[in-house]
Specification:
about 500 residues, mainly alpha, about 75% helix, globular
Length: about 500
Amino acid sequence: MTDPATAPDHPRFAVGVLAFCGVVVAVMQTIVVPLLPHIPALTGATPAAASWLVTVTLLTGAVFTPVLGRVGDMYGKRRVLLASLGVLVVGSVLCAVSSHIGVLITGRALQGAAIAVVPLGISILRDELPPERVLSAVALMSSTLGIGAAVGLPVAALVIENFDWHTMFWVSGAIGVLDIVLVLRFVPESSLRSRGRFDAIGALGLAAALVCLLLAVTQGGDWGWTSARTLGLLAVAVIVALLWGAYELRVPTPMVDLRVSARPAVLLTNVAALLIGFAFYANSLVTAQMVQEPEATGYGLGASLVVSGLCLLPGGLAMVALSPVSARISAGRGPKTSLALAAGIIAVGYVVRYFTSHSLWLIIAGATVVSAGTAIAYSALPALVMRGVPVGETGAANGLNTLMRSIGQAFCSATVAAVLAHMTFLAGGRTAPTLQAYQLVFLIAAAAALLALAVTLCLPGGRADAGTVKGSRRSRRRTRAMPIQEGA
């Protein structure tokens, strides 16, 4: 715990500041999506090179999220959070000052690494807040991943249509600086640390396995799923993962505690996170594209870039409103109930979408239902994680859970791209996905949500509030008995 003399007078400001930071870094994941079709003309790059502006954020986010979570547990969560925000600012400035595709990809890589802010924020809230406030605050912090994704598309579309495209990077850099100032002013540094040495070999092994896996998944559609490059990367990912796992089981302070991660409460929560990430991301990927399809397709609405982006905004607002609802359900019935309810709502949302693909307002309604389910799910997942791991491993464990959501999104992106590319027809002189292609995506996403429901029902029972309260009390007792200096 932070020294009362230096703790903020209004802890609610810390919750708001951390949630704002989470939304900002989540917005960075989707902010270039509306810009992608224009990147070749603006930079002289090939479409394949332009696609790396999205792919590279996924790769760096996946690699750095669990690593920085572990570093935060060991050396100070606020310290690492500030460093992550600094990396976001540097990446934003690089993108703002250049139109060279190599510089843009480098900047986007740095922006992607900042997604570690979310699990770090969750860990800070668990350490610093009174037990009765932990669930609601963590629920809001976790939901920022979905809120930012929903907000990023319409904001980026508005900027692109009305200003020079570099403007959105200048704005994101300025907001990043504001985040740093707010964190320094209102967010305390927890003195709770985990002991031991940083597992550098484990971090490198995890990074190598993730990069090989995600490269194969995200580029397999362009390279060919049976190409030597794709299959080779998948084989290397499996081999490296097996060697990494064997090493992690032998070191005293591993990068990822596989014994803890193998507990049913943790393992099944991470599997559910992967499936929920898959189910949610389909909503973001296809909604804007679907309503922009020309009317000649028979189902498209010919909507503008801004209108298509705004279709996801009600879902983002629903996520803000429902995160405290999820916290109350988790406190009263347990996060297992919350996650099961969320998975069911997401499946229902995709059923609605399957039958309402011709009306803008019904498309928005279906997308909002999916976002509502995602809000409840994203709020429940960290509560389940915290129930199953020691207090000193909160950052690393939530980083791993966030990573599983990212892997689910990567698999979703590859699946959606494959379906929409292979089920096409000629409409108005151009090739477009068929309505059945979009409907198949909805069915696949609904199936992922139902699988998440089945996995959730297999979780051990019990309420998270007790575990969270005990964890918070343990952290207070440990801190009073064994204070750790800032420089430790």
